[in-house]
Amino acid sequence: MSILVGRETRLLVQGITGREGEFHARAMQAYGTQIVAGMTPGKGGQRALDGSVPVFDTVAAAVRETGANASCIFVPAGGAPDAVLEAVASGIGTIFCITEGIPALDMVPVVEAVRLAGARLVGPNCPGATSPGRAKVGIIPGSVHREGDVGVVSRSGTLTYEAVQAMTDAGIGQSTCVGIGGDPIIGTTFLDVLRLFADDPETRALVLIGEIGGAAEEEAAAWAAEHLADIPKAAFIAGRTAPEGKRMGHAGAIISGGSGTAASKVAALEAAGFRVAGSPTEIPGLLRAAGYRR
Amino acid sequence: MKIQEADAKGLLLAQGLPVPGWTVARTAGEARSAAESILAAGADRVVIKAQVLVGGRGKAGGVKLAGSADEAEAVASAILGMSIKGITVRKVLVAAAADIVKEFYLSAVLDRAARRILLMGSAEGGVEIEQVAAERPDAIVTVHAHPHLGLADWQARDLAFRMGLGGQLKAAVAIAKGLVRTMHAYDADLVEINPLAIVREPGEGTIVEKLVCLDAKVTLDDSALPRHPELEALRDPDEEDPADALARAAGLTFIRLDGSIGCMVNGAGLAMTTMDLVKRAGGEPANFLDIGGGAKADRVAAAMGLILADPKVKAILVNIFGGITRGDEVARGLIEARAQQVRDVPMVVRIVGTNAAEAAELLRAARFVTAATLDEAAAKAVAAAASPGSGA
After folding, report:
1. Architecture field, domain A140-289
2. Beta partners for A234?
3. pLDDT greater than 50 at residue A54
4. pLDDT 10s digits, B129-176
5. Out of B110, B269, B324, closest to residue A250 by CB
6. CB contact under 8 A, B276 and A103
7. Beta A53-56 vs A35-39: how paired, if at all?
8. Which CATH class is domain B241-386?
9. What residues contact residue B36 under an 8 Å CB cut-off, 6+ apart?
10. Which residues of A are catalytic?
11. Which pLDDT value is given to residue A164?
12. What is the reported pLDDT for B324?
């Protein structure tokens, strides 16, 4: 098994006729993801990805005609919140929003609508999720992965690729890798993903990749200490050397008044039984030191 | 984006909040004439406040009272040109000194964990709220605005009563709702009034007490600035590193730091990690630089220009994990940038991921120093910075 994405995923790509949407939809399809529909208002009736995927004007039509059950959004920031709302209203259960640069206050009513509908939103400003050997949704390069049983959850994009590549190079495969996104308002938190991993019988170890700012890593660590006590866990926190009060690109990565510092996160993770790496390349060794055998 | 107090007050005023008048002066003479008018209008004293984007102005001596035009000129003259946390004061705000009965704190802030707007109030105003939060958390009262319905009147009333503002209920409710309105109107992620104060003002033949915003701090969501072009004018060029403006124009995220190793990375998390590993290898990063996703040769060249403009830079570490970004594009940009480079700074390049093989070929032909892993790249860059000339 895996979480969030898998062989059962029937993916709709919102914004499939755009440059980014088309490029990444192609890569997802090449990886083996079932892309059943595309959606671009006004382009219904066309076919995308060399004729292999029908394009619809509305999400509702795409769901009705193809049974799409997940969506990946590549719509520009101005329209992305609306794209999420349309997916929710059309009964899509799992929505990945890759778009970056969405104003934070635009997402406040959207995440509430997602919550009320009982749907799941990952992102925005996230790289998506891959269940190696099954399916990938989003923009994580398929080449970094290897099939396995370690669950990976991260706030960032390229740092995740770095850490996952290090695992793959060391022969450690992944059940699912999830990038939750670096924006201040996101649909799925570290804790939400840990809950999903805890219920996945095929996930037998855990890697958490966090960043300075906020308290989401601390919250997740506390939960893991109680509910994921007996599996090997490793972590990495970026931003140990970031100066206070400066915003390091990710809107979330700002520290002030001592809360959300790398030190507080490392301490919380270590107290919860995570082995915390000083470099992403140390993660495989720490997993093994924590008892991971494979 | 942070904006000055005077500009923040302007935004609050435009949203109908009670903000006493003020004037911005750039010279001691301007401050004097502003003080003259304010005193002539009946004020006993004026307050002169340094306009800088850093906190702790009062402690640094950047906020002073004056009882006459002469005194106002002298005080302004002392404050203008003063350095507060490394920022030179170029403007002061001049306003009538308020007759304060009691100070409060009230702010609206984006609560990331709750994914809602949080209103935070305290009867302990005029002091740093972080200090109140650390020492007496019970003195802070909070309420979340509903994500669809906003802040209801009853919530604002409840907040006001809990803050001890029952005697100024209508004004307090209007201000609390006004803060939420201000958040939405300008896409702010923080609107803070400290102090919110009950002040005595001469009314019709008597003295009246009013609730007013004596200070204002607003930070704007950078992601929303494209739809508020008028707010771009509030960016303070006096306090912006010229490199920041260049970086913004080139689509780069750049933050200057104090070290000697320039870093060029794609992705914010990886950029922070690269800095961390430079430090771990015994060096100090000169900057945070995220070239973003899908960077082409021209953006790479612009990034290199920014790094090299810093004379402290003794070595450059390029770390690219290609996903959307193509390694060969970055390699071409680096080769182009080095050809135009005026200063001979050793460079260590690590490119993995999409088109990494093509990148490696280009870099080998151009005789760049390369590294396979991030740890190796950091170690090589630190060594190169320590012994200039031996690197590349």
Report:
1. 3-Layer(aba) Sandwich (3.40)
2. A207, A275
3. yes
4. 878 888 888 899 999 999 999 999 999 999 999 999 999 999 999 999
5. B269
6. no
7. parallel
8. alpha beta
9. B69, B72
10. 250
11. 97
12. 75
Q: Which CATH class is domain B1-19+99-238?
A: alpha beta
B153-157 LR contacts (CB < 8 Å, sep 24+) = B153/B177, B155/B119, B156/B119
ipTM of predicted assembly, 2 dp: 0.91
Residue contact A184–B324, C-beta within 8 A: no
Our CA dihedral for A173, B328, B285, B375, rounded to 10 degrees, sits at 40
Asked whether the bond before B202 is cis by omega within 30 degrees of 0, the reply is no
Per-residue tokens: B57: 């102005």
Q: Among the options B103, B105, B124, B186, which is catalytic?
A: B105
Give the model confidence (pLDDT) of A82-115 as tens digits.
Answer: 999 999 999 999 999 999 999 999 999 999 999 9
Interchain contact, B267 vs A216, CB within 8 Å? no
Q: Which two tokens stand for residue B113?
A: 């964990």
Residues in chain B closer than 8 A to A156 (CB atoms): 267-270
Q: State yes or no: is B201 an active-site residue.
A: no
Structure tokens, A182: 């670096």
What's the whole-number mean pLDDT along residues B304-315?
92
Structure pTM?
Answer: 0.93
CATH fold of the domain at B21-97: Dna Ligase; domain 1 (3.30.1490)
B192 is catalytic: yes
